[in-house]
Amino acid sequence: MKLFSILIAALFLTISCGSRVQKDQPSSPTALSVLTQQEPEVNWDPHTLLKADFDLDGMEDYSFGGKKGAQYAVGILKGPLNVQSKHWTLEFSEDAGDQGSLCSVSEARISLEMLDDELVQGAHGLPEIGKGINVSDDKCDSFHIYWDQKEKRFTWWRH
Predict the structure, then answer these.
(1) What is the rounded CA–CA span in Å between residue 113 and residue 74?
(2) What is the total count of domains within the chain?
(3) Which residues of 96-114 are buried (b: 16+ CB within 10 A; e: fewer)?
(4) Strand pairing of 61-68 and 50-52?
């Protein structure tokens, strides 16, 4: 009987220790944790997460909006997601008289939009399924962020 009790206790310890090891293993990174690590000075809004193939490489990418002091920031992470994912950050200040600025940083938000050769100035041969990021504050013209295949970077146009 004593041997049986020892075996049950050993089995219990093995199971409980094994489950603790699994619980202590680091979890996979999230898009928000990776972007926060790479751009810690930006207060990223977790509710703004957008997912789409922004750089037109067939892989899902991630985007967040956030505040960096008096500027609105758009962060884009290249998929597939890992702790060293390439990222881009575009920043917009507040100045109604400047074409490169928002009218209201506090009301800025991002959303997905479909890309169209006829709408994206200077773009040619965009895929029909291409998606971009729209930055709007409902006070002045939106920014349309898209991947420039020729320059290999994100850029924007406005109307």
Answers:
(1) 15
(2) 1
(3) eeeeebbbebeebebeebe
(4) antiparallel
Structural domain boundaries, residue 58: 31-158
Closest CA to 147 of 131, 159, 136: 131
Tell me, yes or no, whether 15 lies in a domain.
no
Instruction: Average the pLDDT over each of 6-15, 74-83, 89-98 and give the range with the smallest value.
Output: 6-15
110, two tokens = 């991002």
Retrieve residue 117's tokens.
Answer: 């050769």
Residue type at position 103: C
Q: How far is it, in rounded angstroms, from Cα 14 to Cα 126?
A: 57
Residue in 74, 115, 116, 70 with CA at minimum distance from that of residue 93: 70
127 SS3 class = coil
Residue 9 lies in a domain: no
Inform me whether the pLDDT recorded for 106 exceeds 80: yes
For tokens 């881009």, name the residue. 88
Only one residue has tokens 């209201």, namely 104
Name beta bridge partners: 113.
Answer: 132
Note if the pTM is more than 0.85.
no
34, 85 contact by CB (below 8 A): yes
